[in-house]
Write a structure and sequence with these properties.
- The chain contains ten helices and three strands.
- It has a three-stranded antiparallel beta sheet with strand order 1-2-3.
- It has two domains: 5-73, no CATH class; 78-212, no CATH class.
- It starts with 10 loop residues before the first helix and ends with a helix.
- The protein is mainly alpha-helical and 214 residues long.
Length: 214
């Protein structure tokens, strides 16, 4: 996808900004302003890889520009970030590791916001293995969900994603490892579910046990 330059949105705003800041803008400032123009014109719906291909620019630079655009032009609104995280968790594909849950967060600003919210209570997420992957304990995920003040529908949707991730993570494991992962997954779901009825969680895992043949 390459947008026709004549159809870019916000061109007048871009020209006005460059005019008002003329003499104080360096090359990077111009690139950030132009990238913001692209974001307004549909590039925000593309992945970093797709933008990288379209602009023939390294993906690492696209990630940096996206982050700098958010810093320069983004709204410093916690409600906006909270809604973004809720939407992300409802659509995420969770993966169960030995003692943590993992999910993808490709947007750097969102990752930093999540970690900042956790750090306020001396908690943390981990992205050291892969910058685009957030690894988090069940207790810390529960704290985050409670902090977001989810509706019953949103929490149920996220729980279903966690359940699906646990099932898929266990499917291809040897039986002994599958049983251990399964038991740990059950503990995680009880924690994340919060006030959801425990008998319902037990029923979910009885069904998964049959599916996974353990």
């Amino acid at each position: 996808m390459i947008i026709d330059p004549t159809k870019l949105q916000g061109v007048d705003r871009f020209i006005k900004e460059c005019f008002l800041r003329f003499g104080s803008m360096n090359k990077n400032n111009y690139e950030v302003a132009l990238f913001h123009l692209l974001m307004l014109s549909g590039y925000d719906n593309m992945t970093d890889f797709e933008i990288s291909k379209a602009l023939k620019t390294p993906e690492s630079k696209i990630k940096r520009l996206r982050y700098e655009v958010e810093l320069e032009y983004g709204e410093n609104d916690e409600t906006k970030f909270d809604l973004k995280i809720i939407s992300l968790l409802k659509c995420s594909s969770f993966k169960l590791t030995f003692d943590r849950l993992q999910f993808a967060v490709t947007d750097k600003m969102t990752r930093l916001y999540i970690n900042n919210e956790l750090q306020k209570e001396n908690r943390f997420s981990d992205s050291s293995f892969n910058n685009n992957i957030v690894s988090i304990s069940a207790n810390d995920l529960q704290y985050l969900l409670d902090r977001l003040k989810l509706s019953k529908e949103d929490r149920k949707s996220i729980i279903n994603n966690v359940k699906k991730g646990i099932k898929e993570s266990c499917e291809n494991l040897p039986k002994s490892a599958k049983e251990k992962a399964f038991d740990f997954g059950k503990t995680i779901l009880h924690i994340v579910a919060g006030k959801v009825c425990e008998t319902l969680i037990d029923k979910i895992f009885d069904e998964l046990k049959i599916i996974l043949k353990i």
